[in-house]
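Protocol step 6 of 9: fold each sequence in the batch and record its structure tokens directly after the sequence line. For illustration, a two-sequence batch is reproduced in full.

Sequence one:
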Amino acid sequence: MRRDHLASACRLSAAELTRALKSARQMGVVEHLPAAEDIAQAERLFGLTGRALPPARRVPPRDAEAGPSFQPLLDAWGIARPNPRRGSHPS
């Protein structure tokens, strides 16, 4: 398949398609098919090698309840958290 056909079929911009093809070639899933030396880049044909995509990388799940925290940044800057009991009256 040619680049322009791939781009329209996948609805990718030229930059996105370039990155996708580069990654696919690095993984050995897609290859340039033999062509004449003077053929334009857009006219180059790509073919599938038959090799399966490697499994997706696993990212450890983030604790959803904790949410984002600025505490490490505050600790690095030496800023203490306000005391929640500061406004309370002594009994």
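Sequence two, same batch, same settings:
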Amino acid sequence: MKYEVFGIKKDIFSIIVILAFIGFLVATFFLQYEYFFLTRFVSLIFAVVYLVIELKKEYFSSHKPLYILFSVVSMLALTVSILLDKTFGTDEFNARIFYCLIFMFCLLVISYRDLYEKNNGAK
């Protein structure tokens, strides 16, 4: 089922959002390079991989365990990178940074639901 967001098809809108996020992450390396360097680097890697997943949605909709495994690995890597940045960083501990994990988990659930609907719609 295709629907439109702001006059753009949903698949194209998802790709535009991921590309905007990648652009934002690249810009943060130039704006505040000393804070959360490892977390931003890990997020950039996974954003590029999720862009590939979005482009190859047909493959990942038929191989859902691979997508779930990648999602778990990305959540664990992001958690470890946040902990390392907070441990070796110069700023004080702020628990709000862990909202990034909740936000990422919500995005993964939405993305998995899209893969599930694509697979069920193809049958």
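Proceed to step 7 once all outputs are recorded. Observation for sequence two: The chain is about 80% helix and 5% strand.
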